[in-house]
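Write out the 3D structure for:
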Amino acid sequence: MGSSAPAPDSDEPVTPAGRLFLQPQMNQIIYCVIGFKNPIDIDSIKSQVKSSLMLTHPRFSSLMVRDSHGRERWHKTTGVDVDRHVIILHDPVSDVGVDDETAVNNYLADLSTGPGLPTDKPMWEVHLLIAHKVMVFRIHHALGDGISLMSMFLASCRRADDEGKLPTLASGKSKLSKGANRNKSFWGLVWGVLVMVWFSLVFVVEFVLRSLWVCDRKTEICGGDGVELWPRKLATAKFGLQDMKLVKKAVPHATINDVLFGVISSGISRYLDHRKPNALPEGVQITGVAMVNLRKQPGLQELSDLMRSNSGSSWGNKFGMLLLPIYYHNSKSNADPLAYLKRSKVMIDKKKQSVEGHFSYKIGLFVMTYLGPKVATLLNYRILCNTSFTISNILGPQEEITLGGNPITFLRASSSSLPHALTLHMVSYAERADMQILVAKDIIPDPAFLAKCFEEALLDMKEAAAAITKS
């Protein structure tokens, strides 16, 4: 990938995190999926692309090249030919009789193991699926992470209820935790530091061991070495944010992320019961790898300003990696659906009190900088092979939005394949949250059923939460 050439002084080195995503075993492409209410106006989309902040950002107008030492660099081009980046498909992308959602998911599943992005142009594309009223934004992960890309996209959108206003994003910050920190006594702060040191030590040791030899017990959802090359299927689980908020209120100080992991824990347990009833003992650990944003969650306009100045403080790949274990429990013997949420909250609260995410980010930079991409790729690849699934959760706009005057009906995200057989990406939009479930189809042949397991898990939690509220 990338041409080899002497690097002019004006070329910018690719960041260590970006270099990791350019390695063959970790080659990652992000797929942002936008559904429209009305038919797509091709000229309008091209006009939006040409006038967007994207083309003012160096990453989106540069070629990835390698210098004489083999190091990846960004080489600024003299201009971007938008027509080369906008790929138009007028005909349906699947067989007759397949609904739009399934057709688009099949198209994305094929892309996830297909050829990478060409390097003779900046590493992004816009696919317009005209028959399905869907736009797929295909971007190499070396250009930026989900937070950067979401903010860049939303800078071109407007609120549906007021075309003069930009979308607003939830902050994701807990006012309760801030107030608790302010009210802590001196000894409370000392105890907090000791707890942070202890949990950090425990989780960092576990992180190191996972990169060496410790691995999950094999289950019906486990991948492994080489699975990133296997054919994929993609399904969508749909959640109501109001349902998640109702469930959240049933457990004191719980968050939407706690609810999400409770849903995942319950849903995977249900799925494993379906695939092989009574095959696993209670409490078997199934470890997920979560990507967490390490920057302060800025408002949309703030990040847009930073994009214009190409500031290194926010743009790029600024995330750490957390190991988030869930535990299998026989769904028939666990009468309380909220037990999954309570267990997830305890686990995530411990993670919040550690520096595991920052450690993973810093150690990744150190290994890439001083030991090189081969060692960094090997360690990251082993962590993925030794765990069971990937999960990410990105906050989208709180209200309905438009692009070029065309109302957007949904926002979704997925990625190219990893050694995991199960990859989960959730994006919230207005009053809903859609989770894309990308699977290796020879391991998990029925992702639509798995999506139903997740959806039913949330509904059962909602009923239990409503019962608590009434009582």
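The CA atoms of residues 18 and 272 lie 36 Å apart.
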